[in-house]
Write a structure and sequence with these properties.
single chain, 6 helices, globular, 2 strands, 150 residues, two-stranded antiparallel ribbon, mainly alpha
């Protein structure tokens, strides 16, 4: 029987290898793991604000702010000040980011093929369901923890 610490070790190891693979493939674009996640989120949710990005990728606002600053400096996003709240900015992808999307998804698909080699479709589906449940449990736990602090 697997203990929780062993499960976490394997999840962490896979996340580490994934980040290394993606960083190596996209190093010329100057992007790292968090920025890549933001670009993927913005491809489907263009115009959201920093808080919505932070909530989706489960990072604090200051970390997201630093990553957005880098994305802006690299020309991947534009920050547009909200007309209703001058403290709020809507984040939009630039054409440069949109043109990167095919390379980004190709890299992620290649990595998925590498790590799921010799795994049946049934095992992939089960793994995805289990991981989705684990992420949901973690997210709910953190939300409950944050509510208790307030």
């Amino acid at each position: 029987m697997l203990t929780n610490s062993i499960i976490l070790r394997w999840v962490n190891t896979l996340a580490h290898f994934t980040q290394n693979y993606v960083n190596n493939k996209l190093h010329e674009q100057g992007l790292g793991g968090a920025q890549i996640g933001m670009i993927i989120f913005l491809l489907k949710n263009d115009g959201v604000n920093q808080d919505e990005i932070a909530k989706f990728i489960c990072k604090d606002k200051s970390s997201v702010g630093r990553s957005l600053k880098k994305l802006n400096e690299l020309g991947y996003i534009d920050r547009v000040q909200s007309k209703s709240d001058r403290r709020n900015f809507h984040i939009h992808l630039t054409e440069k980011a949109h043109s990167l999307a095919p390379t980004l998804f190709k890299t992620l698909n290649e990595w998925t093929s590498i790590i799921t080699k010799d795994i049946t479709d049934e095992e992939r589906e089960l793994t995805q369901k289990v991981l989705e449940l684990m992420v949901s449990n973690a997210k709910n736990s953190l939300e409950n923890c944050n509510q208790e602090k307030q």
